Amino acid sequence: MKLLSIAIPCYNSEAYMAKCIESLLIGGEEVEIIVVNDGSKDRTPEIAKEYAQKYPTIVKAVNKENGGHGSAVNTGLDNATGLFFKVVDSDDWVDADAYRKILDKLSELAGNRPVLDMMISNFVYDKEGVKHKRVMKYSSRTLPKDTLFTWKEVGHFFKGQYILMHSVIFRTKMLKECGIRLPEHTFYVDNLFVFEPLPYVKNMYYLDVDFYRYYIGREDQSVNETVMISRIDQQIRVNKRMMDYIVDNRNIIYKEKQLKSYMMNYLDIITTISSIMLIKSGTEENLEKKKELWDYLKKKDRYVFMRLRYGLLGNCMNLPGKGGRKISVEGYKLCQKFFHFN
Length: 342
Description:
Number of helices: 14
Radius of gyration: 20 Å
Largest sheet: 10 strands, mixed
């Protein structure tokens, strides 16, 4: 059995996927690299095939009809045979030294008791044209370092702190047992990938290394604000599923104080992002969608609604009138600057 399976979802990725794959090949025979071609119309499948032929014991090339990022992640997980599982997007890459440290620690912890469910490491916002790259890392007051820990040992996450797909490596069997299936033809499903498995995560380990390099700079990237507004219905779909999940699983989530606090905090951030994008679009249709989103949560669970609606971010996102909306946008910019939102 391989130590680590890495899925690379690819759609028309011919221009940059080689850099991603090359950075992962350093892991050698301990790693299984699953290149998932999600119905690309360029040379992506040919490039994947070339790597699979050159490194037959390391690289798998899997072709499928187009289903979106979530569908490609699902396919990667279905084909994973490694003890642990990670997703690396095709325009990103990993740091070689940090990668070796990650593999050494996974190897050390593999098969031990208690079982490691989730490893967390740092990632770097590799923004085009920015000299000093921002690193997303966690203080020792938030996550204990260099030791296995449970939710009881987790400290306070500040508003700008959250665990993204770039940060995590999950135990493969745990992911499969929790039954996570990301929706097809939907952007922003990476939020679900690092949200829904959390109640099943019992033991964690934080390795303070700058492992993942998250490239930001393409105009068509999903995190571009203009692109987000154009795809706002997909953001809302993910947001509502997160609302449903935290309410429908409250009997499990509420048992762990720190787990509940973290998941509420994350839902708060995602709902704020949905709200501000709807406000910034400036259309009456989207302002109505914002009202409907908050009404949806209110009908779903009044406790969760009250906690989000009357918190710092919820109050800021729901100021009345045109002037209130302008203040909301400026307030969001301040929060973005202070809390370092993406």
